[in-house]
């Protein structure tokens, strides 16, 4: 591994690990304190990074931006988890990779087509209630150190963390992501922190660097918000949306949610989607929404009991369940048929109750879910194993909920090496993680509901400007290793108060 000049503007001391086990939230839930095994895993990784950097004669920063730095971090996690008896899964990396760049690249380098169907940014300077964000109670949730590279002297410097430019850098330049979908949050049409035209502006910015394949956009629709369903034909025609994004937990009055299989809201939404010809609906399920739309009474609408019936009644509609119904309140274990009102098990139970077979018209998306599963090998094995077993190996789709978690590269590298242990495979009937299965999850599975062809897409990438920029960036990588979402209760409630 050759020595190189350290020119980093982002983390010159190399204090941030390339694989992040932290408390960051996507802004939809209060950050959870790290458990002891995650704290110990981070401590061991920091220690081992220092040792290996010295062995190779590199600065910490230069070592961490190499594939060997990522390998060292993941191997340190393995060491701690194994010592604590967490045997459900592990990161399958040879020990040699911690000190040998070639061995690390052989395991961690890009080889798959990656299609991230859950990306976020906001119009931070205008739509996200900027005056409130600049108050003492609002802006403090984002420490100066996180966004110093974005003109810290500007009063809006912090706010630029969430813009389209930051999104493009973190999502496309600093990760192996090939394509992404820009999606929305559950607000009224007037209060959207990113409007449809602003999302289109980002799509056009990315499209200018190729032929338009790199970034798709959703159409936001919350059917119990007046006028949303009626607006769907305009969104489909004017903005060429690729799918619909909706939230069954959302309610403008903060009193109740709605179900996919109810006549007043769900059935009308599905029928309008059918009429527009955009027949893929992405539904937020699981992760609770403490927005102005919602009170504690709405949590039950994050359950997936309605999914199976809606899918059975509408076989021509694709239902993509965002977060796979994952709820942080319930720890993952083996699925046992019964009464499951919330969590991944509620999705599985609903499919079984309605005779919806694996690999049908219901898809499980991994945004935030995988980010949290990375912290616990046993929970990761159960959650991923169940999704493959009951939703289908062809119907688990990749999403990261970034930019909230910064660049998704750490999620990609962790999943690229994730392996369910033989013990759990044999005991619970979970599949082994093969290169073919990972490739399906990373991008191939999502092509079907989005009506895309990977051969055409890859051809369009060969000589586009963004591909060239990715190549230049790879020659001298300068990742931020930042996360953008709140990391503490104080930061979370400041963000919520600011209208985030």
Q: Secondary-structure map with pairings?
A:
Blueprint: H1 36-56, H2 60-64, H3 67-83, E1 89-91, H4 101-108, E2 115-119, H5 130-133, H6 136-139, H7 164-173, E3 179-182, H8 196-207, E4 215-220, H9 228-238, E5 243-247, H10 266-276, E6 280-284, H11 307-313, E7 318-322, H12 344-353, E8 362-365, H13 369-373, H14 377-391, E9 396-397, H15 409-417, E10 418-420, H16 422-428, H17 435-450, H18 454-461, H19 465-475, H20 489-497
Parallel strand pairs: 2-3, 3-4, 4-5, 5-6, 6-7, 7-8, 8-9
Antiparallel strand pairs: 1-10
Major pleated sheet: 8 strands, parallel
Q: What is the overall shape?
A: globular
Write the H/E string, N to C: HHHEHEHHHEHEHEHEHEHEHHEHEHHHHH
Low-confidence stretches: 1-8, 124-159
Q: Oligomerization state of this entry?
A: single chain
- Overall pLDDT confidence: 83
CATH architecture descriptor text of one domain: Alpha-Beta Barrel
Number of strands: 10
Q: How many H/I helices?
A: 20
What proportion strand?
A: 5-15%
Radius of gyration: 22 Å
The span between the termini is 43 Å
Q: Name the structural class.
A: alpha/beta
CATH topology group of one domain: TIM Barrel
Annotated CATH homologous superfamily of one domain: Metal-dependent hydrolases
Helical residues, percent: 40-55%
**Strands ordered across the widest β-sheet:** 2-3-4-5-6-7-8-9
CATH class of one domain: Alpha Beta
């Amino acid at each position: 591994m050759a020595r190189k000049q350290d020119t980093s503007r982002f983390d010159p001391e190399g204090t941030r690990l390339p694989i992040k086990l932290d408390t960051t939230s996507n802004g939809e839930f209060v950050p959870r304190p790290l458990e002891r095994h995650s704290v110990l895993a981070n401590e061991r990784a920091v220690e081992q990074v220092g040792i290996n950097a010295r062995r190779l004669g590199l600065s910490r920063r230069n070592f961490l931006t190499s594939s060997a730095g990522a390998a060292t971090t993941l191997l340190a996690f393995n060491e701690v988890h194994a010592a604590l008896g967490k045997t459900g899964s592990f990161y399958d990396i040879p020990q040699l990779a911690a000190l040998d760049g070639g061995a690390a690249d052989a395991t961690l380098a890009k080889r798959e087509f990656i299609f991230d169907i859950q990306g976020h940014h906001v119009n931070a300077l205008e739509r996200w209630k900027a005056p409130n964000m600049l108050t003492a109670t609002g802006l403090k949730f984002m420490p100066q150190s996180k966004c110093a590279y974005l003109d810290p002297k500007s009063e809006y410097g912090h706010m630029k963390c969430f813009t389209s430019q930051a999104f493009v850098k973190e999502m496309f330049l600093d990760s192996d992501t090939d394509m992404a979908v820009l999606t929305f949050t559950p607000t009224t049409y007037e209060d959207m922190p990113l409007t449809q035209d602003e999302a289109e502006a980002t799509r056009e910015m990315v499209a200018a660097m190729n032929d338009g394949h790199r970034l798709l956009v959703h159409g936001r629709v919350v059917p119990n918000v007046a006028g949303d369903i009626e607006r769907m034909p305009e969104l489909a025609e004017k903005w060429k949306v690729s799918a619909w994004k909706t939230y069954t937990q959302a309610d403008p009055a903060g009193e109740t949610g709605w179900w996919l299989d109810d006549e007043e809201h769900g059935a009308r939404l599905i029928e309008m989607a059918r009429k527009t010809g955009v027949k893929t609906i992405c539904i937020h399920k699981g992760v609770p929404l403490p927005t102005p739309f919602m009170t504690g009474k709405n949590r039950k609408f994050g359950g997936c009991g309605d999914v199976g019936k809606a899918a059975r009644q509408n076989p021509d509609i694709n239902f993509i369940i965002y977060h796979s119904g994952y709820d942080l309140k319930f720890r993952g274990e083996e699925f046992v048929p019964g009464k499951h009102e919330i969590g991944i098990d509620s999705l599985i139970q609903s499919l079984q109750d309605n005779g919806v077979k694996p690999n049908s018209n219901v898809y499980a998306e991994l945004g935030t879910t995988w980010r949290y599963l990375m912290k616990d090998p046993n929970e990761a094995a159960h959650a991923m194993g169940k999704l493959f077993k009951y939703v289908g190996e062809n119907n688990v789709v990749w999403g990261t909920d970034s930019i909230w978690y910064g660049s998704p590269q750490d999620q990609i590298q962790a999943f690229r090496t994730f392996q369910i242990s033989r013990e759990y495979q044999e005991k619970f009937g979970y599949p082994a993680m093969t290169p073919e299965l990972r490739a399906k999850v990373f991008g191939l599975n999502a092509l079907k509901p989005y009506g895309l062809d990977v051969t055409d897409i890859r051809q369009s990438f060969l000589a586009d400007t963004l591909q060239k920029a990715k190549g230049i960036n790879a020659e001298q990588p300068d990742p931020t290793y930042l996360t953008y979402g709140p990391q503490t209760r104080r930061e979370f409630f400041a963000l919520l108060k600011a209208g985030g």
